[in-house]
Amino acid sequence: MNRSTLKDLLEKYRTPFEEEKDFVPEFIVLTGDPKAFLRERKEGHFTASAWIVNKTRTHALLTHHKKLNRWLQLGGHADGNENLMEVAMTEAKEESGLISLKLVDSLIFDIDKHLIPANKKEKQHFHYDVRFLVEAAMDESLTVSEESKDLAWVAFDAVPDVVGNNKSILRMLEKTSKSEYAL
């Protein structure tokens, strides 16, 4: 995958969720920015995430993000890598220690534009997050990274209680139960 492939995937991307539809044109335009995959693009840049589920689609793997102090999907910055699928898989492995990760589909699973609050190192900015659906075995041991406070397999019915009103995670949860992604 490169920025041209990403642009093609975004142009073909379809979603029934209005908030996600609103993001698509911005994501497409961003693919043309030379700094789109770099943190140095201060107004916002691409990131990639893995929505990790178990094979029977009953649990999702979430990380308690240290800086944001919230339960989230695993993922991170592209740091110049235009292959966001590769970024998502690399980040998932680094942040979980899992080896058994399996990409379910090479198509984009979800997109989300969200504001990252200012901190000591950077001003507030947007993450344009491209997400992929990934499977993993729940019996494999987890390794908490320096970026996390904790990792947990969370039962689908408990995810709303854990993530609160995080619409993007609730959206991915809903998508996971749809027939095209269910077993």
TrEMBL record:
Instruction: Look up the signal peptide feature and give its range.
Output: none
What's in the keyword line of the UniProt record?
Hydrolase
Molecular-function GO terms, alphabetical:
hydrolase activity
SUPFAM superfamilies on file? Nudix (SSF55811)
Identify the residues that the record assigns to the Nudix hydrolase domain, covering every copy. Answer: 43-176
Among InterPro entries, the record links this protein to: NUDIX_hydrolase-like_dom_sf, NUDIX_hydrolase_dom
Q: What is this protein called?
A: NUDIX hydrolase
